[in-house]
Amino acid sequence: MSITEAIANATRDPADTEPITTVRVLYSDLHGVARGKDVPVSEFDEATEHGLAFCAAVMSTDLRHTPVLGGERGFPDLCAIPDVSTLVSLPWEPGVASVLADLGPIGDGPHPADPRGAVRRAVAGYRELDLEPVLAPELEFFLCRRDPDAPGGYSRYVDRLSMVYTVGPQADPLGVVRGITESLSRLGLGAFAVNHEFMNSQFEINLRHADALTAADRAFRLKSAVKDVAALNGLVATFMGKPFNDQGGSGAHFHVSLQRADANAFDDPAGDHGCGPLVTQLTAGVLAHAPALVALLNPTINAFRRLVPDSLAPTHAIWGWDNRTAFVRIPSERGRATRAEIRVGDGSCNPYLAIAGILQAGLDGIRRELTPPPATGGDGYRAQHGDELPRTLEQALDALEADEVLSGALGPEIVEPFVAVKRYEIERHRLHVSEWELEEYLQHL
């Protein structure tokens, strides 16, 4: 059976009877933005066999469209090879199927940054220890309308206080978020619940736990789906960490557990708080590499606007039993639900790099059998425990470059362009005159 024929068996909405005419081949750049090409279904066999060529500079291009690296190599190509096992149809675009791609070189060219491959490498390290990482991402986002009269050009889709956990037309009058969740669930992508979150027009779609690569794929696809369906409804969805000064920010939390022989390797009824040593070793590894992880989990200048006290985002490298003020929280559930929650992530993070970084940091803790500092109880913002996290993107990038273990595990093909693009972003920000500066100084000085 040809690949084209296999499209008929792709995971799809049972209500979708329109034949697939286009396959959208997608991959993540280092920002976590979906890049790719639409391929007519008649050409998909060829694309699967030989891959699709893209200029590799896309992996080192900033969000203002500047290729920061690539010219020194003559702007070579990379090759995107569709992973047919990820093929699904898109209910919100009848006739279109989507497939994720793995990235590699063309011929003897340089190996490109491959965020999906970074997750695979991290998983391979755990499998050497007969462990299988399992993750469940939690992603928050805002829905907005374009509004030239609003600050920044955007107003909120729903703009009323105290809508947290409200569902139905009051919270989602167009049914946009409900529709996305239903579609993702029907496609087997693990979306099982949705609600309005704490901030005005902030929403969260919950994803079921899965193996690490599947979890990363689901998070990446969720972000892409939310933005696409919002656009089809005349809205703008943003996972930006803190888009509004009068509202809190959007986080990306990652729940991590380890499986061994189909059992939760973190669970131990006879252990401390019902947990075995692996959970504290992984926690110790994450905390040991916390400054560097901040760069991957908070990859924008804006992200640091939300890492402040009383924000439910951590400010110090601490952990605690069911403590939401900590970097690592160990929830109260035990048995198969025993897990660690890494809470520092910003909604804008690339889920592949975030998951790869967390897993590599935790693996280092397990391999070295590290012991974390004492758990923090109560208010972690005022407990004066643990080292303060980087307060700027520049400090976090310094920490990532200095962390030989984490940088080495991710590889120079990812770390070097990531750091270069982000330092270029910092320099552009440093030279830009903001509205705040004009309001603060222009009349008075």
Describe the structure.
- This protein is α+β, with helices and mostly antiparallel strands and about 450 residues long.
- It has 2 domains: about 5-110, Ubiquitin-like (UB roll); about 120-410, Glutamine synthetase/guanido kinase, catalytic domain (Creatine Kinase, Chain A, domain 2, 2-Layer Sandwich).
- About 30% of the residues lie in helices and about 20% in strands.
- It has 12 helices and 16 strands.
- Strands 6, 7, 8, 9, 10, 11, 12, 13, 14, 15 and 16 form an 11-stranded mixed sheet that branches. Strands 2-1-5-4-3 form a 5-stranded mixed sheet.
- The protein is globular, with a radius of gyration of 22 Å.
Using brief descriptors, characterize the structure shown.
alpha+beta; 445 residues; Creatine Kinase, Chain A, domain 2; 31% helix; Ubiquitin-like (UB roll); single chain; globular; 16 strands; 12 helices; five-stranded mixed beta sheet
Give me the secondary-structure topology:
Elements: H1 3-6, E1 22-28, E2 34-40, H2 44-50, E3 52-55, E4 77-89, E5 96-105, H3 115-127, E6 132-146, E7 154-156, H4 176-186, E8 191-196, E9 202-207, E10 210-211, H5 212-232, E11 236-238, E12 252-260, E13 263-264, H6 277-288, H7 290-297, E14 319-321, E15 328-330, E16 340-342, H8 351-367, H9 393-402, H10 404-410, H11 412-431, H12 435-441
Parallel strand pairs: 1-5, 14-15
Antiparallel strand pairs: 1-2, 3-4, 4-5, 6-7, 6-9, 6-10, 6-11, 6-12, 8-9, 12-13, 12-16, 15-16
